[in-house]
Every structure is written in C-alpha cells, then in structure tokens.
Amino acid sequence: MKTTRGVLGLLGLAALVWGLWMAYPMTKDIYQWFIGPPLLDDAIVLPVVGVLSLGVARLAGTAWRWPLHFGIGATALIVYLAITEAWRPYGFPPKPGLHDRDYVMDTLITLVVLWAVVVIAGLLRARAARRRQDRGTDPDVERQEGALPDKAGA
Amino acid sequence: MVGRKGRTVVRRAPTGLTKLLRGRKDPSPDDGSRGAVALRVRARPRLQDRVTALRERVFRPGTRLGKLKDRADRLQDKAFGLLRFKSLVHDPKVTSRVGTWLGIAFTICFVTGVISHFIQHPAAWFYWPSRPINLYRITQGAHVISGVAAIPLLIAKLWTVYPKLFERPAVKSVLHALERISILVLAGAAFFELASGTFNAAQNYPWSFFFTTAHYAVAWIAFGSLVVHVAVKLPLIRESLTKEKRREIDVSRRAFLRTTGLTSGVAVLVFGGSTIPFLRNVSALSERSNDGLQGLPVNRTAKEANVQTVDSSWRLEVVGPNGTTTFSREQLQTMRQTTAELPIACVEGWSQTATWTGVPVMDLLAAVGAPQGASLRVSSLEKGGLYNSTTLPGTHTADPLTLLALRLEGQVLDLDHGYPCRIIAPSRPGVLQTKWVRKLEVIA
Known about the structure:
- The complex is a heterodimer of chains A (154) and B (444).
- Chain A is mainly alpha-helical and 154 residues long.
- Chain A contains 6 helices and no strands.
- Chain B is of the alpha+beta class and 444 residues long.
- In chain B, helix 4 runs antiparallel to helix 7 and helix 6 crosses helix 7.
- At the A-B interface, helix 1, helix 3, helix 4, helix 5 and helix 6 of A face helix 5, helix 6, helix 7 and helix 9 of B.
C-alpha cells in the first residue's frame, strides 16, 4: 500500500508539475479559474443544492423524494448544456448540419419528457408505498424500502 | 545564550531532519528505534507546536486581537450551528463510489485527449494506426461523452464532501494544508476542463485564451492532482469500497448513487447523439443535425476559409523524389477510383460516416515514384488557418483506404466539402482531413 501510494503520489506530482509548466505562459488568462469556480460552487451551487434538497425532504413524501431530486438535477444539467448551444454571442454562426437546430424548442421538449418521467416515477412509487401500508407491512421494512422517511435531508 | 535583541535564544541540538538536510549521517537513537521513525515523530509536532505557540502569542486573551478572535469564533459557532448536515450521503462510502466513477470518467477524458493531442502534434515516438477505421471516432466520442457525464459526477462528489469545508480547525497541519490546496487545484482544473470543453464542443467560445493549448495544459494539472488526491485518500477509498462497507450502503445512499448515475445518463442521452448513431434523433443538444450539405455537416465553410471559386485551371502538384508532377481533375478521375465508407470524426466530438470516392493516395505516390509508406505534407488552397497544411504519416499513406476524394455520396464534392479534392483517411481527426488540396509533398 505504501509503495502504491508513493508511486501514485510521485506520478501525480510529475503530471501536475508538467501541466503547471505548460500552463505557466497563460497564467494571467487562466488563474481565475482556480479561485472563481470553486468559490462559486462552495458559496452558491452547493448551498442551492442543500436548500433544494432540504425543501424536497420537507415538502415531498418519501416516494417522491428521489424522482424530484433526479428531475431537479437533470433539469439543471440540461439547462447548462442548452446554454452552450442556444446562447451564442461568442459562437460561430450555425453551419450546414452543425449547431443549426432549434435548441430552445428541443430543450423544452426534453424537459417536458423528463418531468413526465419524474411524475410517472413518483406516482408509481407512491402507489407502491400505499399498497405496502395497506398490507400493514412493518414500518422498519418500509423504511428500508424507501416508503417511509429516513434521515435524508441536507 | 542571549540573542541580538536581548531575548534568550535556546539553541537545540540538531535533529534528524537538520542533519539529513546538512548531509550528515543520522546516528541510530539510543533507544534502539530506527532513525527514520524517530525523525518522523520528532519533526512533526515541533512544527505544529510552533504554529500553535505563534497563534497563542498573536491572539493572546485580553488583547485587541484576542477579543476579535473570540468574537469571530462565537460568530462562526453560531453559523456552523445552523449548518447541520444530516443527510446520509455525506459519507465516505458514497464519496468513494462517486469518486471512483468520476475518476474513471476523468481518466477516459485524459487518455483520449492526450491521444488526440499527439495525433495532431505527433512526437517522433508516437504511432497511431489507420485501422480500425472508426478508432479515432470512438476515442474522441468517448472523450466528449465522458466529459459531459462527469459534470453531474463532479457536483455530486463535491456535495458528498461539502461538510468537510466547515470542519474545524480548517488547517490541522502543514500536510493537511497541502492536501486542501491540492483539492482546490483539482476542483479548479476540473471546472476549467468541463466548462471550456462543453463551450468549445458547441463552437461557442467566450474566452480569449487559445482553447487547445489551455485545455491540454490544464488537463495535466487536473489529472495530476487527481492522482495525488487518490494517493492521499487510498486507504480510505479501499476501506470504503470493501464488500462489508458496500453492504452497509442503505436505501438513501443507494438512491443518491442511482440518481447521480441517472443524471449522468441523461447527460449522455441529450449530448451523445453527435457521435452515437442510435441516439441521433433523441439527443436534443447534439451538435449536428441531418441537414448537412450532401448529407454531411460542414465544419469549415469555403467562405470561412476564403476559398471563393476553383476554376478549370486548378492543378494538383505532387512533389516526389523525381520532381513535381501536376494532375488536372480530369486526369485524377481517369486514375483507379476507390469507393469507401469512412467516418469524418471531429475533435469537438461529432462524427458521421459517408461514402467517399477518389484516388488512393498510395497510387499517387507510386505515380511520382515515391516509396510506399512515405509521409506527405498536404497543402490547401486555404491561405490562413491553423490547418492549411498538415502531415499525413506513412501509416496512413500506405493504407489503401486513404483517398484523395473527388466525390461524396456519388456526387461531385461540394465546394464546402473541399472541391476540387480533399483528403479522407481512416481513423484521423476531421481537422487533418485537409480540404481544397493544392499540393502533396513527399517528406520522408
């Protein structure tokens, strides 16, 4: 284990130093990336994730919790990727066969399909939870199966 | 003894570390323990003690700074009291699993990116085969897809370790400080790679720095700091991934892992249609549509390349060992024609197969008396641009499927696709498939 860690550490350091050496001439253009995005992530993105996660845990039943988490996470990701294609003040003009789709419309359709899947998954899980409750299953078992609240939150 | 300012200075006997730095032999300690162990035990607490003593001296109770620190501590306690991370996902077992997936995604990205870099800027030792014909298409497709899939993995990974940001003391030792700095470097480099990569793939690039150079350099920083991070955390990772610990992953944690995996799947689904044929009509954010000229997208138009028209006076120059030979388009058409289905695979991740017809480059080499497998410099009618001149290595010139293409899908090449002729070779990046070819020079 010690040898593996040592070798990995040395290889990683070598790659890191090589990268820093190559990036050195661009320092003034890229140094902000090592401060700004991690700060933005820790100060805004992750707190927003925490608040949303807490909100979902408080407001939604257990059956709906993970479908909603998935829906929110996937929506954020799709919106980010859509920005790269749809908002193009710095982009090349669309070319024949490239970047020439109606990305706003396609994104909206994708989000509608995504949330339809979320709703269907939530309804199915809620129905399964109700059936288990009707059968009078042991609450501990239900907790194990995700039908009753556990300690998930922020 | 008394120092310069009248303070008492205690000179300590040289420790193992100072002796080591001075290059002297460290005699074995009297207690029989090994020198290295004694060195570690002695060296660490001393540095930490010094830091603690310095802190106590600066923030002495009752002084202005001391009171300020007390107030800051109380405020911090109050703020941290509000932050209660109760979720079960903030757990090394979850972190290790998400981290493993992220590590795999980053490794695929790094390896395929380095391959693409060396194909475009080949070192003397580098070899890239021309078969299978889809090899570059697969590696570059994997590069972009694993990069997009890594976005939710990175956020999920950072979320699982978020409480660590509020741990106190913020810095426990010098090593701990170095570890935290390395994580900052890793996070910054990872964000840089993913953001610059996705915007570049969309050909929508808002930054002033040159993408290729910066993305390549920071990739080494990201991968290097990732490997260092793995080295530091290896015992914890190994422990968290044991069978026993895996069995301890309960419903909440499993659901979190599943949600993260599904979100990565969504990323692949909405973006992957650029390169995965069966996702073409599903991917909303695929770069390419089906509306390209002659059924194929155009990445660089003739207008962009400032190639207005090519008239009948155009001649292809082939510089061989016996001098220069010229060919008109009609002469090229009378030579043996090969038709092949070959992919155009762009560095931005999109790819598409098309049917190309043209003269095998090996026939042209033979026509000018050049040896088989000679490398060629290919020059374009395009005056500017980074890729107006490219090198076609011997591995590719010797491949019978490397063509000087005259037709696409049975039709004469459109000007935007490189009329009067272009290079199309198997397993090559699109930027190196030179269009509007003017001259071929045998260089080796």
